[in-house]
Amino acid sequence: MDLGLADRTVLVTGGSSGVGLATVRALLDEGADVATCGRDADRLAKAAAHLGAGSDRLFTGVCDVRNSDGVSEFVERAAAHFGGRLDALVNNAGQSRMKPLDETTAEDWRDELELKFSGVLNPLAAARSYLRASDAAAIVNVNAVLAKQPETRLITTSAARAGILNLSKSLATELAGDGIRVNSVCLGLIDTGQWTRRHAAADTGLGYEEWQAQLAADRGVALGRLGRAEEVAYAIVALLSPRASYITGTSIDVCGGVGRGIL
Fold first, then answer.
1. Most confident of 107-111, 171-175, 193-197, 217-221
2. From the DSSP assignment, how many helices (H) and strands (E) are in the chain?
3. Taking residues 203-208, what's their average pLDDT?
4. Are 149 and 260 in contact (CB under 8 A)?
5. 58 band by pLDDT with thresholds 50, 70 and 90
């Protein structure tokens, strides 16, 4: 099926690895032009080289989503590179903070809330005028099932994710008048670099595949495995597509069936 993304311009934050990188690749495969940013210049350059797309299709820049001026500058440069056009935005930049309540400081709370909310609000503020001018504008906020199923060992991230899910719902209503759709994709356990690092740190003596299976069983993942970044990218790209033009204010769980409730 043609998703109608050819020659559209999409901005993806946090596109140097994991889900962000998989989303950039999927969008390029669909014929879209893509602008993406990350905090690490070397990782971003390696990702761009790996994708193999020319500068006419892919624009990259170093940017921290917490810095509103830096985000605005990147968006302006990206839009200018693609002829003043921006049709969609994927807010993907973020990380998880593995700490229970008693180990969490006031600074941890501030940092986590700033990262999660700035990661949505700063790109939106910078890109909104361009999105408003598009005839098929869409935003996807990459979130996590933690937003609906909090974990005490991830207490700050769970709380921040819940706030972003709430914010996304509000933005869908607020931006509908501008013709901008807003949806969320909520991740479960996805096999990205952070899990490789956690496996190494755990030092359990188990191989990575066996450790993954044990982790999935412990977390109640019905499919018995971690997800792949490209499986998340598929859901993101589908929601960005003009063919999803009547879908806004919703969230899709990409989590292998993990769940403790029916909602």
1. 171-175
2. 8, 7
3. 86
4. yes
5. very high
Cα 159 from Cα 113, distance rounded (Å): 8
Say whether 250 sits in a helix, a strand or coil.
coil
Buried b or exposed e, range 16-29, using 16+ CB within 10 angstroms: bbbbbbbbbbbbbe
Structure tokens at 108: 């941890």
- Cα(44)–Cα(33) distance, integer angstroms: 17
Return the CA Rg of the chain: 18
Judge if 213 and 96 occupy the same domain: no
Burial group, residue 54, by CB count within 10 angstroms (0-12, 13-18, 19+): exposed
Domain assignment of residue 2, yes or no? no
Residue 259 lies in a domain: no
Q: Is residue 172 part of a domain?
A: yes
User: What's the rounded Cα separation, in Å, for the pair 182 and 179?
Assistant: 10
Q: How far is CA 250 from the centre of its chain?
A: 15
| Structure-token match 């969320």, residue found | 184
